[in-house]
Amino acid sequence: MESDPVPLEKTEQHLICLFSVLPPFSDVTNEVDVTVFPGDQKQLFDHLSFSGGKRIFVGGAVTGGDRMLWQRNFWIAIILIIEVFGASLYTIQAKPHRILLDTDVDTDDFFALLYLLKLNRSEFELEAVTINPNAWTDAGHAVNQLYDILYMMGRDDIAVGVGGEGGILEDGTILPNVGGYLPIIEQGMTTAGGCRYRQAIPVGLGGRLDIDTNYGIRKAFLPQGSRKYSPLRQPTAQQVMIDKISAGPITVFVIGAHTNVAIFLMNNPHLKKNIEHIYVMGGGVRSKNPTGCCPKNASTSCQQRQCGDRGNLFTDYNSNPYAEFNIFGDPFAAHQVFHSGIPVTLVPLDATNTIMITEKFFEAFEESQGTYEAQYCFQSLKMARDTWFDNQFYTSYFMWDSFTSGVAVSIMRNSHKNNGENEFAEMEYMNITVVTSNKPYGISDGSNPLFDGLKVPKFNLKKGGVHSGHVQTGLRDPFCFVENGKGKCKDGYTEEVTGPDAVRVLVATRAKPNQDVSSKLDREFFISFLDVLNRPEHAGRFNLTTEFPYYREVLYKPDFKNKKLGKPVVFDMDMSAGDFMALFYLLKVPVEVLNLKAILVSPTGWANAATIDIIYDLLHMMGRDDIPVGLGDVFAMNQSDKVFPPVGDCKYVKAIPHGSGGFLDSDTLYGLARDLPRSPRRYTAENSKKSGAPRDTDHPELRQPLALEVWTSVLKTLDPGSKVTILTNGPLTNLAKIITETNTASRIEKVYIVGGHISRCSHDKGNLFTVPSNKYAEFNMFLDPFSAKTVLESGLNITLIPLGTQRNVSLFAETLGRLKLTRKTPEAQFVKRLLFRLYTLQQTHHRYGHMDTFLGEILGAIFLTGDHPNLKPTLQEMPIKVIAEGVESRDGQILIDKRQGKSVKILNNVDPMAYYDLFANRLGDKKQSAVLGSYDEQRIMWNTPPNQT
Ligand SMILES: [Ca+2]
Ligand SMILES: [Ca+2]
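^ Inosine-uridine preferring nucleoside hydrolase family protein isoform 1, sequence as received from the core. Prediction below:
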C-alpha cells in the first residue's frame, strides 16, 4: 500500500517513514493543509498540539550545508516534540479514512460514488469499489460504466471488483471468489440460478435496461478509458475486498444487497478486525412510506398503494410490505453483516423517506451543473423523472445512497462521536435484526434451500431458529398473502426486536432541515450535495464529446441507388457471441443477393437488453447505420407478471450463467465490445406519449423502437406481395409475437431457425449444461418453449438448423486457420480475435466449456444465403413438435411425431470444409467492408480536423 503510512511509534525510524510518504516537494498541492518552513518550528509545535486531524507538510527551500545542519536540528526538535507530546502525534499522522464502496451501480449509487470522489482526499480516500450484481444492474454493464466514470474523474487507480466463479458446497463450505450473482440462500456451484428476490426488480423499461445503460446517457456522455472488463482478468469482488481490507483499517459502505460483504465476512473472519465500521443504506425500521398515498381530497378512485408501509418494494408491496430493496436482495447476507460484531450504522427508509427529490431541489440542481459529474448526475435524474411511470416522481424518488454517503462521511469527520452526531441526519440507537424467514420457524415446506432436503442444514443453522421458517419464493408467493389485508411476509425487514436476536445499531431517523431557513432547499444535505458535486477540486476532466477536439457524430449509410437488391431478410438474434459473427457474415453477403432489412433483438436469451448497443456499434463499423434495430419483449412467453408486467419470473432464462461464459461475457462481447467504434445510435429511454409513455421526454424522436414496430415498418417498405425471409438465432419470442399479435404471417417467405435438438438416440444429448434434469433440449428452444411451440405449429415454411448439424461445423482450429489465410479486413480481424478469445477461454477454464455452441450459430446465416454448391447441404422433411408444458426437465425438447408433428425441413449436414472456407472468404472480401475499423480509429478521427481525414 504505497499511500498507506505505517502506524507511528516513538522512533525516528518511523518518523522518517511518515515523511517519506508525503508528496515530493515539487508536488505541493492543495492536498496539504499546513505548510511549515524552517524556522517556523514554533508554528509546527503549535500545530502538533492543536491541529487535530490535519496532515502537516514540512518543506521549503533550503540549500547546501545549511540544509544538513537544519535537518539535524529539525529532527532533534521533532524528536523532542514526540517525547513531550507523544499522544498528540496521532493527530499529525491522521491519514485519510480508507473507504471501500460496495454498490449495485444504480443511478443513485453513482451520485454517492461521485460525492465521495469529490471529497478532500487527505480526509477520505475511496480505494475500491465492488459491485453487487444481483440487483438493479447486470455485471458486464455495471463494471464498464464504473470504469468509465472513474476514467472521467481521473481515478483509474481505484480498484474495481466484480464477479467470481466460486460457489457454496452443499455442506456450506464457501469457496473463494463467490461472485455474488445469487443470494447466499440460492448460491450453489455455478453462477446460474433463480431470482426469488431479484424478480422484484423490473427487467426492461424503468428497471435493469434503463439502469444498465443509465437511460442511454452513459454511452452518450461518459468517455472511455483503457480499463474495461476482460474475461478471467477482471479482479473479482472478493479479491478486491481481501486485498483492500487486509491492507489496514478501512470503512465499508454497502449501498446494494449484502451478498459480497457477507461472503467476505463468512470466509475471512480474521480480517473482520480491519473493518472499522460498516455504513448501510437499506431497510426500514419505523418507516412509513409516503409513496402511493391518496391526497386528502382525492376522488374515490384513488387507490392507496404503499402509503404507510415500512418497505419500498413497489413491485411487490402486496405480499411483502416490510422489505426494502437492498436488504430484500439477500436477507440472509444482510443478517450476517448486521450480526458480524462490526459496528453498523444504518440509513434506512426512515431517514431517506424524509429527503425526497423535491421540485425545488430538482430546479436548483438544474441550475448548478458546473462540472461534468454534476451534469451526468442531473441528466440521469432528469431522465428518471421524465420517464417515471406515474405523476408521483417528486414523492417517490428519494436520496438514498447519496444521502447515506453524506451522513457517513459527516459522522466519520466527527471522529465517530458516540451518538453519530453529524450535519445531515438525526440518529438514534435501535435494537434490530434482519428477518430472513417467516414464522412459524422450523416448518419444512420446500421454500428454504438452507434446510430443505439436507441432512445437515447449511452453515450449521438450527431447525426452529430464525433462519428456518418459510422463505419468500417470489413475488406472488401464496404463503405471503392474507385475504383482504396486507401481505404477511417480512423477508428483508429490519425489524426492532429484543433479546438475543437483537443487535444494537445506530440508525438515521430523519434528514435534518436546512439551517438556512430562507433557502428554498429544505434539507441540509441538498446544499452539501450540490456544493460538493460542483467543486472544482477533483472535478471530471471531460466527457465523451469534449475529450476530443474534433468529436463529431456521423451516420454511415450506403448508397444502393443503382443496385438491384437481393432477397429481403430480417435477422432475429439474442446477442450471443455467435450471433454477432453471423451478423458480420450477413453484412458481407453482396446486397444484390441478400438485403438485410432489419434486426430484431430477443433479450430473452444469452444477453441482457442493454447489450443492444453492441449491435448499433457493429452496424456503425460496417457503415450500416441505415438498418433499423427493434427491441423485443424482455420476458419469454408467459413469464411476465400478470398483475405488474414489468416484472416476471426467470424460469427459463435462469439457465444462463451470470458470470464467466454467460451474461457477464455476452454483455461485453467477451471484453471486445468496446473495441468497436461508438455509434451515435444507441438504446435510449427517450419516449413519447404517442407510443404509450406517460409523457414526452426532450427528444422523443430518439426513442428505441420495439421489435414489432420495426417489423411492421419493414413490411411497409416492401413491394406489395413480396415476402421476407427470417433468420432466428435465439429464442423465438419475437417471431411468436409476430405470428400471434400481427396479421402478417402471410408476408413471411421462409423461416430459418438456428436451434432445436433432434435426438437420434439416448446418448445424443442437447446442450443445457446448467439444467442437468433436461438432457435433450437445446437452449434456443428451452429459453422460450411456448414461443417455440407457437412458431413450429404456425404452418410457416420452416427450415431448422439443429444442434447436431451445428456441431459438425464447430471446430475452432479450422475456422481460425482459414481466417488467418484470408485478407485482413477489419471485420475478419475482429471475428478472428473474438474466435481466438472464445477458443483460448475454452482451453483455459472449465466455465468456458460450451464455447463451440456459439461457433455453430453461424451456420444459419451461411446456409440461408444459398447458392453455394460446395456446401452440399442435405435436407430432410420431418414431422416434429416441441414440448412446452412448464416442466423444466422436458420443456424445449423436440419430438418426432408422425401424427401430431408439423412438417419442417431439417438441415442434416453440410460439407464442413466448404463451410469454413465460405465463412473466411466472405469476411476477407474487400467489398462491403468496414468504414471505421475500431474505436481506436474513431479516436484518431476525432483528434484530426475534418478536412484532413
Ligand atoms: Ca444502490
Ligand atoms: Ca444466439
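The longest helix spans residues 64-85.
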